[in-house]
Each structure stands twice: as C-alpha cells, then as structure tokens.
Amino acid sequence: MNATAQVIFASAGTGKTYRLSSYFLQRLLLEVRAGREPDPAGILATTFTRGAAAEISRRVLKRLAEAMSRADLLERLGADAGLEGLTQQECARALAALTRGIHRLSIGTMDSFFSKLAKVLAWELGLPEQWQVISEAQATELSAQVLEELLRNQGAELMQAWKAASRGYASGVGTRLLSVLEAIRFADLGPACEGALPAPKRMSAEEVEHWRAVVLALPLSGAKGDLKKQRTAQCLQPGRRWDELWSDAELISELLEGKLEFNRKPVDPECTLVPMLEQVRKAAQQVEEGRREGLRRLAALYNQRRLDAGRRRGSLTFGEVLALVARGFLAQDESMGEDLYFRLDGSLQHLAFDEFQDTNRMQYRFFAPIISNLVAGDGHSLFAVGDPKQAIYNWRGGDTDIMRELVDEVQPDQESLEKSRRSSQAVLSAVDFFFRGLGVAATGLRGIAGTVLPQAVADWMSNYPEQGHACHRVDLDGQSRLWGLADEEAMQDKVVALVRERLGQGSAEVAVLLRRRQWVVDLQGKLRECGIDSSSEISGMLTDSPWVQAMLARIAWMEHPGHGLAKALAQVALPIAAEESPTLEAWRRCWVNEGPAVLLGSWMEELQSRVELGRHDRDLLGHLVVLARGLERVGDVQPDELLREARATRVALREVGGAKVRLLTIHASKGLEFDSVILADMELGLMLGDREGLPDLLEGPDGFSAVLPGSESLAQLMGERDGPYRESLRRQLMEMLSLIYVGMTRARRHLDMVVKLRNEEQLGGSPTPALLLQRVFGNSGGADEAPDLLWSLDCAGDPGALPVAPTTELVQVNQPLGEVPPVASRLERRAPSAQAHGAAQSLHWAVASGDDGRAALMGRAVHGWLAQWEWADDPAAPSSQEVLVLSKREWAGLDPEEAEALLQRFCREVLPELKPMQQGHYQARWPQAAELVVWRERPFALVQDKALWSGRFDRVVLAKDAAGQWLGAEIVDFKTDQDAGQLEERYQAQVDAYREALSSLIGLAADAISTCLCSCKLPTLAG
Prior knowledge:
Low-confidence stretches: 688-695, 698-709, 797-827, 837-853
Structural class: alpha/beta
Mean pLDDT: 78
Largest sheet: 7 strands, mixed
Distance between the termini: 74 Å
Number of strands: 28
Oligomer: single chain
Strand content: 15-25%
C-alpha cells in the first residue's frame, strides 16, 4: 500500500466531508509543526458544487477556531489529524496563515479550477487575452449560428450527411441534432471516410413480385392471418427502401425480433423468409452505418467551426474550458505539456478529491500525471473520497469505474465508512430493506431494460455494505413509510398532507424531493392554499412568472410600438396611466441613459404598489433585473438581446426567507440532509425511445465514442450492436438505483415515499423507481394504519425491535454483456400459470360468455384477503375489518359495504374449512419442526431449461428443523373459479411447475414438496 495516498469509500451520512476537512487541516498543521509557513495554495481540494466547496471551507476554518477555545475539540482535532499533542498555538498559527492567504485558498469546484488555469495560461492555450464563460442561452445561440452557417455554405454533400444523420427528417430536427453534436464535441470519433455516403438499398420490381408471392403463401390461418399477410404485401413497393420494412411491416418486424408463433401456432421462416429477413437486416445496418458516418462528417466540421467562433468572440463554455486545458496539458507536443505540468506542479503539493465517483474521463486524464508525481514525491500526498452508490451524474460523463482504477494504479491505503452519523435506524433499515430485496424485484420486467436490470442490480450491490448500514445515532427516533395512491392528483394531495403532518410533529425542515418541474409548480400552489410557505430550488425558466412575461411584453412594445400582441399583454398586466407615446419615449431614454436594470427596477416598484406579489414572482423578477445588470457589464444592451436571453434563461428558484419546506430535485439534494424527507414523483424511468430518429450515445474510454441506434427495437434488430446498447442501459439503470439511494439517505429521522399504485399486470412493466419501490415494500406487509399505506416502520431508538432486512438472492441471466446471442436463441420466458389448461382467457371469450369481469375482480379480492393472514387460527390474527383495510388495493372496484359483507361471509363459511390456513394442521403434519415459515404472495424468478421462469406463489408453508434445515414444504394454490372436484384435472400441471420452481430456488428435493389445490369458491361471490 502507498501511505502517501488514501482512498475512502464513504456511504451516505458517514462523514466524508468531515474526513476531507481533517485531511486538509492535517496538511496545514504538519507544515506549522515543521516550522514552515503553510501555503493555502499548496493544497488543492476539488468538488462538484459551489455549496459543497463552501461547506469544506467553512468546516476547515470553524474547526481551527473551535480548537483554539475548547480543549475537548482541540484533542479531537489532534486525533482526527493524527497529530499527538496538538496545541492551541499551532492551531492559531495555522488559522493566521489561512486568513492571511485566504485569497490563495484552493477549495472549489472542478469548473472553477479549470477556469482559473485557463485564465492564467490563456496565451499558451491559444485563448484571447480577455475571455469569459458565457451563459447557456448565449452558448446555444452561438452554436445554432455556427451550424446554420455550416449547412448553408458547405453544399450538397454536407446536406446529404445532415439527412443521413437525422434519418431523413427534413424539418424540426435542428435543435435535436445540435444537442447531439454538442454532446460529442470533445469526443474522438475517428476520421471521416472519403467519398459519397452509402445510398440505402431499394426494392426492384422483380424482388417485389417474388416476395409478395412468398408472403401471401405463408401458412397463417384465419381472418387475422390473411389481414397480416395483405398488409405486409402492401408494404412491398418498387423503389421502397428495404430497411423501412422493419418498422412498417408488422409481420417482418415480429419475425426479426424473435416472435416465431402466430395464433399460438409456430411460424417457421427457415425455408421461405430467411433471405428476405437478412436483406432487411443488412439494409438497416447499412442505413445505421450511413447515419454514423454522416454524423462523423458533420461533427468534424462543426467541432472546429464552433471552437473558432468561441475563440474569436472570447466566449467559452465550461466544457470548452475543460477540453482546452486538458488537451493543452496533454498536448502531442510533449515539451508544451511537460512545461505546463512543471509550472503547475511547482506549487501543488497535496491533492484532495471530494465526490470522486463523479469524475469524468477527461478530468481524470488531466490529473493522472499530477497524481503520479504526488504519490512518488517526498512530502506530497493524495486524498480521494467518494461513494459509487451515489453516482448520479453518469448522464454528464461521471464514471464510477475511475475510482477503482485509481485504487489499482496507485495502491493507496483504503478505508470504508459504513456507520451513518446522519440517519435514524428507521431510515437506514428502510434503505437496507429495499436494496437487499431488489434481487427478486429486479426479475421478470419487460423489455431489454428489464432483462438488463438483474445484472445492473448485481453490479450496483457489489459496492453495498455486506452487513448493511450501521447507525451511529441509535438514540434518534424515526419512521419510514411507503404510500400508494391511485393517480397523480391524489399523490400530490398526499404529499401536502404529509408535509402538514411532519410540520405538526415538530420537524425542523421538510424536503420534498421530485423529478419534474411541473410538480414543483403544482405543489407550491397547493401548499400556498394551506398557508404553508415553501422554497423551491429546482431549475426553472425565468418566464415561469406571468409578471416576468408582462415585463418582457413591455420591453417588446417599447422597442416595437406597432407590436399589437406585446402592447395588449403589457396593457392587461401593467396598464399605463399616462399617454402612450410620451411614456414609451421616457422608457427608451431611461434604457439608454441609466440602463435596463434601472428601468426594470422602476417597473417592479410600480408593480408592487399595485399587486401583492408572491415570493415565487418576486424571486423571478429579481433574477430578471440581475440578468439585465449582467448584460450591461458586457456593453450596450439591445432590447431584443435581453428578450432573447430572458426567454432562454433557466434559474434556480431559490426563494428568500426561512421556509421550513423545501422542494428540490434529488440531484440538487446531493450532499444535503433534512429532518424529514418525502420522496415523490418517482414514476419517471429511463429516457428510452427513438428520440425523433436521432442516435443514443454510449460513453467509451475517452468520452462518447460510439453512436448507437436510438430505440430498443432497433437495438434488437442490430445484432452486433445489441451488446453496447445493453451496456448503455446497464449504466443508466445503475444510475437510477443511485438516484433512489441518494433520495432515501437524505433523511435524518423521517422518510415518506409516495408512488402511484400499480396492479399485478403493471408491476411487470418497465423499470422505474416507483415500480421497484412498490415491488420490494408493497409485498412485505407491516402497514395497518391507513388503506393507502403499503409499508411502515417505526423506531424509537431500540435497534433490537427492528425487523431483519430481507436477504434475497439475485437471480441472474448468466449472459455476458456485449455477447448477446441471436434473437432466436435468447431465453424464452415462461410462467407456471401458463401451464394450466385454458388458463389464458381472451377478451373474445369473456364477451361471448357474458362475463363482465366480476369473477376476476372477486378472485383478486379473495387472494388479497387470504394474503393478510399468516395463520387464521392464531389468536393474534387480524380481524375481518383489519383485513379489509390492508387489502384495499385488491378489492378496489367493489362497493365497500358489499366487500365487507362478502368478506364476513367468507370468514364464516370458507375460511374455517381451509386447512392450509390453520397452523395446527401443519404442526400435526411436521411434529419435529422447530419453525414454520409462511410465504404469502411471494414473487420468484429463475433460469431453468434455457428459459426464464417467473411467477408468484399464492402461499408456501415451509418446515425447518432445529439446525435450520428444510424438512419439507407445501405449495398452496387458491382457486376461486372452480369447485374442488374440478381442480386437479385443470390445474395439476400448473402446481407441478410451481413445485419444480420451488425445488430449484431453495434446494429442497421435489419429493419433499407437496402441493395443495384449494377451492375458495363461494357460490354468490362471483354472481
């Protein structure tokens, strides 16, 4: 191990900022103890947000000051810094050196560090003498101008590249394609090929005639089969592109994506359609290669033109600054790179990284030579702290693999911090409960993302503490709950109710963590109606306030008096008392002589004298004035320029005042903590889809290095690219898990999670945070306080009273990413329930039989009721009224009074006859059992016989001996649609499949597992 380097893996709330400040103080105090004057500039500490940098600086200064006045804190600082016998005089000298050189203190963000380097080394990096970092709106405008000029002046060949890269979109694609070009500006995509781009292959008349005959001769029976053949034949037209059949011809796309049956009868394409399918596949691959080449040609020209434009104007983005500095230091001209590193290394002796898991490749490549010199040099050191579980910036280039690479290359001293100093045991138990229960919850979901999720969970959990999170504050009481509501309106109302509840309980601060801006607007309005002040810290548009829009309408009217719409908007919101022309003239004089900020300030005073403005509107109006003042510093401001900037400006809506309720995104909450946290708006999953025909980007070793198909179905079609697409999904899914982890661990005492309630069918959908939360918590029981409460845990400081977090083994598909087999050989999905004769009932059958769905509804209700009893003969078993409340989501759709009456009758007439619900029945059966374990509504998934089996056990009773070994088990399958005498013939194949599944899952011999088909039919329940 290298003692001059230290890497700390710190879970949430374990004190990583404290440890970094201890390292910083250790370096300063060692200099003092050696009799040298500490140089604040010799220690570089970097992080990713201004707030985090400010917190590190505050802690360094505060801890030195406190150690000078309190002996206990002096002793603690000495222990934390590893300095035995630390004195107050040493702390005083270190604090004096810090305050004298405060202007040289190097604690800041990565962006600020690279900006400072660029300012100092502007000449060497080829930058103009005076340059500035421009706003997002200014950068977007400049980029659009460059691309427009490029396309206008480069002729037909470049237009061909444009059309290829955008898959033929003729209009409306500019903004989308521009965002892609910006994303890959600093990536090395390789040289563009010479010559014309490949033209898509089209169908000849002879090919059309041949393949129409083949398609129409396919053995697809029935009216639907004939219709599908006719539609496919109509898609075959002379001159049409072959690749378009993939999206336009349903039969072709189904066969290409692996569907080899129709109307439950196999379709064998081997002898007839294989050449045609290969033709379509190759054509699609050729089109994708053309898109990639077109994008490469556009990117090569755009990158250079955009950089030249920024240099000419002296206007750079943070991304350009990073790229210019990094490439300057890593220049191919080794003498230049060595000179720059020598100048930097002369003053830098110690390097500290905060949130190292968010470092991107370009940043790491820049620091790599410095790190090598520091760990090899005498008296130099390296410190890095991070948590791969909190990596939520993959979308902007953060790479968690870098932290492991640093460990491999430097061989530092390592330490893992797992004892939380922030959260109550109730919060940490909820975190452990969720992530340890992800194994089963991650299986059986739809789409490519669903098949990749088990691997993503396994990789993410490799960084999770083996024993779970330990709690440092065992005396802190707390509560964690999961709520399930029917729709978005009900969810928002529940959030408001929870805010009121937590404030009423005395919470110092309540944070509502969200994903979408619209939720902020809606919740702020609802909270305001309840008289609750809230502050919003979610990035929004400056024009979100109608009063800002009124101000902008005045500016537009002032500049263009004939602008009728602007005049109307301005007059409605802010009517002027004086005559029109003199007023407009007075405004223009004020704009020219005193500046737009003064004019806007006078309008704000006028507005406040007429209208009582809310905090939200005052904040945005203040941002408008600040924006105007910033533009004034650059030079004369034209009204149209201010209008353009205001309409494109996003702001952090930080409202003034000491509001106890804060609304912010999970990303913005990183590094913060709150007494109570409410997680809501968790329905958004991955941003998948075709993205208007533009490609997705996959991050490679040196940035974005691969351009991939933009949709899941196209990735399935493109066999050799399916692996990279799955790798991209794996990274996105791991980031989604990190997002859940960060959100949950912001809470000190109370954690509430609000999700949209899903039924059984919806629980098998595409992965989202809300779906995973309900899959883990929603089936674990323990909620008896309210009908919409799915899970709860209270803790009054007694860890011994807490439930043990579930430890479910993750079922993985052992298929290496990047080596995905052809569609036909992928794992088939099977379910034991599909083995039952006639188990699948079509809509046509239900209508023909006169079934209105009531039987299925009652069946779901009975299953929901049965799941609430562990043992019906237990004296502590819930009452029928309690069961009704706990199973509300299962009987939703029935009249509550009717449901209660039916449940009471069920309890009188059916439940006493159900032996599988009686504990005494199994005690007599297994008298040697030391423990009886009951699974209720337990989902499962496993790989067996080249198929992915998934389903749900209604009830399993398992017997354990004194040594903890399984003695036997019984699988109970409740049926509500058949009398007892008809069950075995209809369902025996299904329960036999369940037996095989259970045997594989727990390792118990199949002959030790019995099955029980149990009729719960009550004659009047379904009628």
